[in-house]
Design a protein that fits this description.
This protein is α/β, with parallel strands linked by helices. The protein has a single domain, classed as Nitrilase/N-carbamoyl-D-aminoacid amidohydrolase (4-Layer Sandwich), CATH 3.60.110. The protein has helices at 20-31, 55-58, 65-77, 120-123, 179-193, 242-251, and strands spanning 5-12, 40-42, 80-89, 92-100, 106-110, 133-135, 138-144, 158-159, 162-163, 167-172, 196-201, 203-205, 211-213, 217-219, 225-228, 234-241. Strands 5-4-3-2-1-16 form a six-stranded mixed sheet. A hairpin with a 2-residue loop joins strand 3 (80-89) and strand 4 (92-100). Helix 1 (20-31) runs parallel beside helix 3.
């Protein structure tokens, strides 16, 4: 089914430190009271645990507790739901974004750029594949937190005479001291890729004493602010319009002059 509009719920929330049960209970209460007609629910990075390097302690396999919980929420809300968790697979650990549809189908994206300043690269495996998911006629590229600093990885390439995606989406645990970079880069990704950009960041203070100040936001293809959450806990909503995006790309076809590049070496 193709829809010219996409209603998105951005869940900006504090998280219980390494307590999956508490986080899922807290989020379930929020999500079952959403506005009607939501198409896509976006949760933060590592939404069941907080951003932790204790991968072995908190990891779970695919299709286990959190995946099943996401399937339940997706079925009850009839919305796609996404956010990242810690996954163990064949002895390796991944900061993995799950993409769970109302019919129970699960896809995923593994974080490419691991935050070495927190030793994430020493505890998790690097993702090796760019993904573009489709939902209701929209093409959506998922990214995770530190990926935001690397525009080549998210560059909206031209395929078969059209742009690769319509939305670039970031789930994050982006600390307060660098929040200005988050604001700048999230807006830049929308402008340079002629797409909507969505970023969902957490708030609060984690078990390592790191503070997070939210600033979850949505920017349109011209870099105009559609939604901007400050620092409090809230769910923000936005209705995105596909026709206006397509019309702007025809009116201002900067994508036709983009430089070609190849990511096959990644």
């Amino acid at each position: 089914m193709i829809s010219n509009s996409l209603k998105v719920a951005l869940v900006q929330t504090d998280l219980y430190w390494k307590d999956k049960t508490a986080n899922m209970a807290m989020l379930e209460e929020k999500l079952l009271n959403l506005q009607s007609g939501i198409d896509l629910i976006v949760l933060p990075e590592m939404f069941t645990t907080g951003f932790t390097m204790d991968a072995k302690e908190v990891a779970e396999p695919m299709n286990f507790t959190t995946t099943k919980w996401m399937k339940q929420i997706a079925a009850q809300t009839q919305a796609m739901i996404t956010g990242s968790i810690v996954i163990e697979e064949k002895g390796n650990y991944y900061n993995r974004l799950l993409w769970v549809s109302p019919d129970g189908k699960v896809d995923f994206y593994d974080k490419r750029h691991l935050f070495r300043m927190a030793d994430e690269d020493a505890h998790y495996e690097m993702g090796k594949e760019r993904k573009v998911f489709e939902w209701k006629g929209w093409r959506i590229m998922p990214q995770i937190c530190y990926d935001l600093r690397f525009p080549v990885w998210s560059r909206n390439k031209v395929k078969d005479g059209e742009m690769e995606y319509d939305i670039v989406l970031y789930v994050a645990s982006w600390p307060s001291p660098r929040i200005s970079a988050w604001d700048i880069l999230l807006k830049a990704r929308s402008v340079e890729n002629l797409s909507h950009s969505i970023g969902v960041n957490r708030i609060g203070t984690d078990g390592n004493g790191i503070s997070y100040s939210g600033h979850s936001a949505v920017y349109n293809f011209k870099g105009e602010t559609l939604v901007f959450a400050e620092t409090k806990e809230e769910i923000s909503y936005v209705d995105l319009d596909l026709i206006s995006l397509q019309e702007y790309r025809m009116k201002f076809p900067a994508w036709m002059d983009a430089d070609g590049f190849d990511l096959s070496g990644f």
